[in-house]
Amino acid sequence: MILDLLPALGPDSGATSGVTTVFMMLAVLVTAARLGGWLATRVGQPSVLGELIAGILVGPSLLGLADPANPYLHLIAEFGVVILLFEIGLHTDLSSLLKVGPAALSVGLVGVVLPFGLGYFTGTWLGLETLPALICGAALTATSIGISARVLGDLGKLKSLEGRTVIGAAVLDDVVGLIILAVISTIAAGGLITTASVATTAAAAVGFLVVALLLGQLVAPKLFTAIARIPLTGTTGALALAFALALAAGAQMAGSAPIIGAFAAGLILHQTPQRETIEEATNMLGYFFVPIFFASVGAAVDVQALVHPDSLRLGGLLLVLGILTKFVSGYAPFWVPMRHALVGAAMVPRGEVGLIFAQMGLATGALSPQLFGAVMIMVIGTTFVTPPWLAWLSGTTRKDMLANAISDDLDGLDDLVSGGRSHTGSHPTRNSEH
To answer: What CA–CA distance (Å, rounded) separates 111 from 166?
Structure first.
């Protein structure tokens, strides 16, 4: 395997060669991910799909250029997850989403309960144990905010009633999904599956999120106003990331998942005047670290396991459920005059949060390579079908999609997750720091 030859490239043996190996794997993953993402956007797909496929290509089961099981590489990929969830939080304006609250709430709730229940029962029907079946159901609950925002923006529908409903429902799905992830993570770590344990873990996740938001709203504006006055370039962005890391650590110490803390940090800092400065700093890191996460998830795919009959059978069922259950959720606000099919189709892509579920299940040993392959089939399939489906439903041509400019408020998240285009013309004034 090519990976076995990488340590020999270092000048010394032992620790130095180990560092050299990690550096080489990082170089391979970043290069492959960015090129794969670019190729995906060239054919009208979100960049995350290309990054996943690039990771599969350079992973141990094919070229063997990167080993996602390397602990240092795993740590760097986890840092990418923190940046991603921090970025999602930065772009989540809860107050504006209240305007479409009832419609988004109904879509979001149906889009969580229906896929989770059917995914779990399908898993148990096929003979899976409780924990793997729960992970399969949980992976179906997510909706990719970044991918949905990118495609709706390309179609010129992001500011429409349908677009705002989708974004609101996607935020709800991901918040609930992250709480479910916190519960399942605790169970996977050895906790017993009891009503009390689930209630305790869910209460810890919700409680931490509520307390962090309440305290953060009181402290963060004054704190970051003071930080912005520090006469050292880059201080605001660096300390904002430190804030996200501290909340991620705090969430884990509170018995929740670190990504809950990172998401909470983004929600808190969304309201600060320095948000755009923080976003710019986060994006610069995200361009490097977030593709590493996506590519490392792809690299963890065992191609032989992916085409195993068990993977194909379960993956096919999860894919069908993943499409149908989210599409049906678009019709939940039946009393609202809107294009329900457009809402339902936009809720389909699982993208980054679905990958987080899959990676957690594999890392904890709760998912076998075959089950991980099945979840990946669902994630990749739902991500792949959404852009052309939405374009067909809206009657928008590819030329029209290229002409539409995506909302400035979601540019950063769009770039990190979906491969947003560079924009021409002037950009809104950024908040400066001294």
So the answer is: 11
Long-range contacts of 219-225 (CB under 8 A, 24+ apart): 220/268, 220/269, 220/271, 220/272, 221/271, 221/272, 221/273, 224/269, 224/272, 224/273, 224/274, 225/272, 225/273, 225/274
Which of the four pLDDT bands, split at 50, 70 and 90, describes residue 10?
very low
DSSP per residue, 43-96: TT--HHHHHHHHHHHHSTTTT----TT-HHHHHHHHHHHHHHHHHHHHT--HHH
For residue 429, what is the DSSP state? P
Cβ atoms of 87 and 282 within 8 Å: the answer is yes
Task: Provide CB contacts within 8 A for 75, sequence distance 6+.
Answer: none
The dihedral through the CA atoms of 261, 265, 266, 271 has a sign that is: positive
Pair 298, 358: CB distance under 8 Å:
no
132-164 exposure pattern, b = at least 16 Cβ within 10 A, e = fewer:
bbbbbbbbbbbbbbbbbbbbbbbbbbbebbbbb
Q: Which two tokens stand for residue 113?
A: 């309960």
pLDDT (tens digit, 9 = 90+) per residue, 133-150?
888 898 898 887 767 776
Question: Considering the domain 73-418 in this protein, what is its CATH number?
Answer: 1.20.1530.20
Name the DSSP letter for residue 301.
Answer: -
Residue 307 has a pLDDT of: 82
Mean pLDDT of the chain: 79
Nearest 5 degrees, angle CA 183-CA 185-CA 191?
80
pLDDT at 346 over 80: yes
Q: Residue 76 corresponds to which amino acid?
A: I
**389-330-166 Cα angle (round to 5):** 80
